[in-house]
Amino acid sequence: MLNYLLWxxxxxxxxxxxxxxxxxxxxxxxxxxxxxxxxxxYRLLTLTGExxxxxxxxxxxxxxxxxxxxxxxxVFVPVSMLLxxxxxxxxxxxxxxxxxxxxxxxxxxGSFAAGEIIRLLWKRFREPFGGPKGxxxxxxxxxxxxxxxxxxFFEPISYYYFAGTIVILCLWIxxxxxxxxVGLTFHAVHWQxxxxxxxxxxxxxxxxxxxxxxxxxxxIGGALMAHYVGTINPNSFDVEVMVFVLTWAIVGGTATFYxxxxxxxxxxxxxxxxxxxxxxxxxxxxxxxxILIASILFLPNGLESIVQRFTRKEAKS
Length: 317
Known about the structure:
This protein is an all-alpha fold and about 325 residues long. It has helices at about 1-15, 25-45, 55-75, 75-100, 105-125, 155-180, 180-190, 195-200, 205-230, 240-250, 260-280, 285-300, 305-315; strands spanning about 145, 150. It contains 13 helices and two strands. Strands 1-2 form a two-stranded antiparallel ribbon.
């Protein structure tokens, strides 16, 4: 009974949350919402046992593709966002041919190299990618009304509601995929790859599928960001951003669906509400590094293990 009550309470809290924040905090909330989708897609990839250093660049593929679809071809923004996700998934499929000849550490380094090649292409070609300065003047999401609320997308609250709806839908799809037979096979590919292969599972095909699905939804996240900010450049998707995504996933934990989300939310709050207010924002990489090391040493299963501990205690009592 309690679980059924928690969902409407959580939904009401998410709806009311931006109204108690300042304008800058509302903007942070928009980026946090998009980052929640990004880190959740990254976890889907890790289900097969592969960790990538190019996932943020794949997010950038969705951002660049969606921006170009609207600027060059006049595609309606919501449609271009979907096409951005599809483009990111197709690029992931192409990258899978060389990358999935590697495993483990070699896949990690290979994904970093592939991501850097894509970023260098964005920097090298001014047409159509804008070179080092990137793409500016990206079409915003057009305003609309649903009767009870007028969406003005220059206001962060409106974009938060729009992005939040898209992200919740994407998270639900990702959760359903994980709980499906396909998702269970992803786990088997990770933990019992030899047994799965002996049972007739095509390991490379399932790794490619996980890579494509994760990349597609990451591309949608990139498109959401591009049409909110209005400008993107290669530095928006560099390895520093990727390190933050890795930190969110490791600190939160990847054994559960909510683990990376927990890490993303708590570390974002720490960064934006604590470090920024105390004037320590420039030390963020150092502090994140310390948190990452401390988490590996003292909390190897992530923050999700603390939640699991409490839930077990409550279940016993």
